[in-house]
Amino acid sequence: MSQHRDEHLDLCAAYALGCLDEADRSRLEAHLSEPCDLCARALRDFGGSAVLLAASVPPALPGPALKSRVMAAVGAGVEGGPPKEGRIIPMRSRWAPLRRLGWALAACLLLATAILLTTTNHLRRELKRARDQAQSLSRDLDAERRWAAVLASPSARAASFSLTPAGEAELRARATVDPETHRAILVFENFKAPSGRDYELWALRGNTPVSLGLIRSEPGGRVVLRIEDIGDPATLTAFAVSLEPEGGSPTPNEPSGPIVMIGSLGG
Amino acid sequence: MTRQEQDVACLKRLSAGDTRALEELYDRYTPLVYPVVLRILRSRSEAEDALQEAWVKVWRTASTYDARRGPVAAWLLTVARTRALDRYRGAASRKRAEARVETDPPQAAEDPSSSPVRKQIGQRVRIALGSLEPQHRRVLEGAYFDGLSQMEIAARLGAPLGTVKSWTRQALTKLRELLPHEEWA
User: Where are the compositionally biased (Basic and acidic residues) regions (chain B) (predicted)?
Assistant: First the structure.
């Protein structure tokens, strides 16, 4: 860690506004690889000011459908249920008198028009739904391509995890980090945490652990984590997995439970 | 429990796969984030697409949030601004946006459904921004809403890079001094 200097506070301000260039960002990340109380306070204060800056924009709200789109995109149930269909009024069972044939024909024509309109509207909704789905799939495909590129990157660094004496023998894990894009993919197998406990993933920067979140158990115990921005890969030395109380370590900057696996990054 | 503590707890639930936590964050912060995205992209449809991508990214990367880098609200804004600016920087999108600047009618100044408290906060922040030194205000707006780097701001204002760095910090500090107890509600 570099010793705190006044210029680090300038970097914190630019970080909060999102206008740091890559070189300055690397300098700040290197400095923050070890705790710095002054910078932590500055980032909190400047971040709060940035939030106020956002609040200066006149209020506006997106369309109400956006929330459902977001929830559908993350795999949650879409709110509101299926669209309501038009109700069809049952026809009378007796024939109209002959002298009223004209009225009956007109009624039939109206009914046919109503059915046609209902069908058209229904088809239009179906078409829109299909288009939205195609757009969503296209976005998902792009995302998958980006993640596949992580594994294919010539500069990718791999980490093979080793068990510690505290780890269950069947645990398996591996990680791939792409230093170019800062993306990382981690695969865990046989990760079924005991009742009331959770596995938590950590990135080690030098000797400082940074929580990357919980490893959520899924049926079969296989978990794939995709991390969009792992931070500066130059300072990332290893990953670690700890067994924590449910919900994760109560202390944000260090594991409270035993380390069960360590994965050192290769070149 | 402070707002930040509530937000961190929400992010933890979210990273554990709780979609209700995402709904809570969406309801709480869309009124703050969407106007910023709309201001950058100047198109409701593009702003909604960008915001959708942003919330999906929040869902996927909640576990990477680091409280030592700033409040949750600032992180959410960064995710959304980055998506919006990426779209804006796309050549086609930029052309469309520039065309819209000339042809679109001015956007409604206020959303009538916005809460009075938020309207008052926005009004107070706008007054505070108006009282900043002009160069401080331009640095904040250029960086935050136009997505300019400090080098680009220096070129735009004709000022040395070191000076722009100092102005950035002074501007944020001054804004906080003018609104010492203000929090987005």
Answer: 94-103
- Cβ-in-10-Å burial (0-12, 13-18, 19+) of B134 comes to exposed
DSSP H or E run through B122: helix B116-130
Residue pLDDT tens, chain B, 185 long = 788 999 999 999 998 989 999 999 999 999 999 999 999 998 899 999 999 999 999 999 999 999 889 999 999 999 999 999 988 887 555 565 555 444 443 344 455 556 778 888 888 999 999 999 999 999 999 999 988 989 899 999 999 999 999 999 999 999 999 988 877 76
Is ipTM > 0.90 here? no
- State the CATH class of domain B3-103: mainly alpha
A19 contact B CB<8A: yes
Q: Which CATH architecture has domain B116-178?
A: Orthogonal Bundle (1.10)
Determine the distance in angstroms separating the CA of B169 from the nearest CA of chain A, rounded to an integer: 5
The CATH number of the domain covering residues in A157-265: 2.60.40
Judged by a CB distance cut-off of 8 A, whether residue A54 touches chain B is yes
Residue spans per domain, chain A? 6-55, 157-265
DSSP B68: G
Distance, in angstroms, between B91 CA and closest chain A CA?
19
